[in-house]
Amino acid sequence: MALHLIKLCVGAESIRDLEEWIEERMRERRRQKLPQEQLHTTRMVPKRVEELLDGGSLYWVIKGQLACRQRLVAIRPFTDSEGISRCHLVMEPVVVPVSPRPYRPFQGWRYLTAKDAPPDLGDGSASAAEMPEELRRELASLGLL
Q1: pLDDT bracket for residue 111 (50, 70, 90)
Q2: What rounded mean pLDDT belongs to the chain?
Q3: pTM to 2 decimal places
Q4: Which of 49-63, 73-87, 90-104, 117-131 has the lowest mean pLDDT?
Q5: C-alpha span between 25 and 58 (Å, rounded)
Q6: Which long-range contacts (CB under 8 A, 24 or more apart) does 34-41 make?
Q7: Which DSSP symbol is given to 120?
Q8: Counting Cβ atoms within 10 Å, is residue 15 exposed (0-12), middle (13-18) or buried (19+)?
Q9: Cα Dmax for the chain
């Protein structure tokens, strides 16, 4: 059974914001002739790597709601120039909206079990997937979605 990570998407106002940021990073990587992969650097290295890479995703919390996910492709520990252990979370540059759910702020990342992960929008909720993100957020905050 896959294990996931959950992390705050600091600075993003919406899923579209995150997608635009990823698109810009991919354009920059193409210009530099680097592999087309999305990297997110984090301080702590997950211990449960095998479980995470067995179909796991990084779920993003945007503006207080669990909003979307990206499939994890690799986890690459490294030591930075100051001697601090860090980790690159390598993800597919494809964002999948999920059924929104309120989530309180936290530092770093947390594990998220498959049974606790929200379903993707479009998995039986086509009408919700077609709604504007702001409307989905509002309905979810009211407990109607």
Answers
A1: very high
A2: 88
A3: 0.82
A4: 117-131
A5: 18
A6: 36/93, 37/73, 37/90, 37/91, 37/92, 37/93, 38/70, 38/90, 38/91, 38/92, 38/93, 39/88, 39/89, 39/90, 39/91, 40/7, 40/88, 40/89, 40/91, 41/86, 41/87, 41/88, 41/89
A7: B
A8: buried
A9: 49
CB 112 within 8 A of CB 59: yes
Element containing residue 121 per DSSP (H, E):
none
Q: Please measure the distance between the N-terminal and C-terminal CA atoms of the chain and give it in whole angstroms.
A: 26
Q: Which residues contact 31 (CB under 8 A, 6 or more apart)?
A: none
Reduce the DSSP state of residue 104 to 3 states and report it.
coil
Cβ pair 110, 6 in contact under 8 A: yes
Which of the two residues, 65 and 132, has the higher pLDDT score?
Answer: 65
Q: pLDDT-based confidence at 53, cuts 50/70/90?
A: very high
